[in-house]
Design brief:
There is one protein chain. This protein is α/β, with parallel strands linked by helices. It is built from eleven helices and ten strands. The strands form two sheets. The chain has an eight-stranded parallel β-sheet with strand order 4-1-5-10-9-6-7-8, sandwiched between helices. Helix 3 packs parallel to helix 4 and helix 10 packs parallel to helix 11. The radius of gyration is 17 Å and the shape is globular.
């Protein structure tokens, strides 16, 4: 497979700060060499924008617009877009670049729901809002900036979640998003098989992996660690189930923070996950 490694070295709009250092850490740990050993040809591209003093949300919009162009160009060249975040906002640019929203499903693997909006968020943290934004709730300016048309909620599965704000949980309950909590993955719930089978009828699937879905004992290098998460073997199994549907159009790996990664365990886990998805 020809793979475009799309490095997005931002934590929100901050270049190479915290999670923004993840692309470099993954590459330094041998990601390109690992993919080559699996038979993939890689091309590296860094997505960035000029420094400016414009408002944060506007800068994020420009980052996602640049990523959308990079994803579109990769696909047009016959390359698989492998997006290396940064935070989970990279989903917006990736989905915009894939286009064809009516034909797109999302498998969002994350300890958190990322289903807050500015109206209900307790913190106002934009990185906790991208899934809601992707299906048309909140942050309209970001969707407009990168040309993202909302994805249908019934085409979205939120998997491995275990940490939701109260209003966020209520918003998910009102939505058509299918939610499979951590225990559902551990138990290999039949519900999960049904979801993947249903999504497989769609022409393309975007797989989003926030590495904090792993238990914090196995992935300490994250900004929002939570206990009672998945073990690496469980995450690898899950990713392989999604990939086996044969519909992956793009993959984003997010939320590694190398500055907090004791012993490099989180980076190594991320490399295993990418290998499982593209193996």
């Amino acid at each position: 497979m020809n793979v475009s490694l799309l490095a997005v070295p931002y934590n929100l709009d901050q270049l190479r700060v915290g999670m923004g250092q993840a692309p470099a850490a993954l590459l330094q740990a041998g990601l390109a060499e690992q993919l080559a050993a699996q038979g993939h040809a890689t091309l590296l591209e860094t997505v960035s924008i000029p420094a400016s003093d414009m408002p944060r949300e506007e800068r994020i919009g420009r980052i996602q617009a640049a990523l959308a162009v990079a994803v579109t160009q990769a696909r047009a060249a016959g390359r698989f877009p492998l997006v290396l975040g940064g935070d989970c906002l990279v989903a917006l640019g990736t989905l915009a670049g894939l286009a064809r929203p009516a034909d797109t499903g999302i498998v969002w693997i994350d300890a958190h729901g990322d289903f807050n909006t500015p109206a209900i968020s307790l913190s106002g943290y934009l990185g906790g809002m991208p899934l809601a934004c992707a299906v048309g709730h909140g942050l309209e300016a970001l969707r407009d900036a990168c040309g993202l048309m909302p994805i249908a909620e019934q085409h979205v599965a939120l998997v491995g979640v275990r940490d939701l704000d109260t209003l966020e949980a209520q918003a998910l309950e009102r939505s058509a998003v299918t939610v499979v909590p951590t225990q559902g993955v551990i138990d290999q719930s039949p519900k999960l098989d049904a979801i993947l089978t249903a999504l497989a009828v769609l022409p393309q699937i975007y797989l989003h992996i926030d590495i904090d879905v792993l238990d914090m004992a196995e992935a300490p290098g994250v900004d929002f660690p939570t206990s009672h998460g998945l073990h690496i073997e469980q995450l690898l199994w899950l990713v392989q189930q999604v990939a086996a549907q044969g519909k992956l159009a793009a993959l984003a790996l997010t939320a590694v923070n190398p500055t907090k990664d004791n012993g490099g365990r989180t980076v190594q886990a991320a490399l295993q996950v990418i290998s499982a998805a593209l193996g």
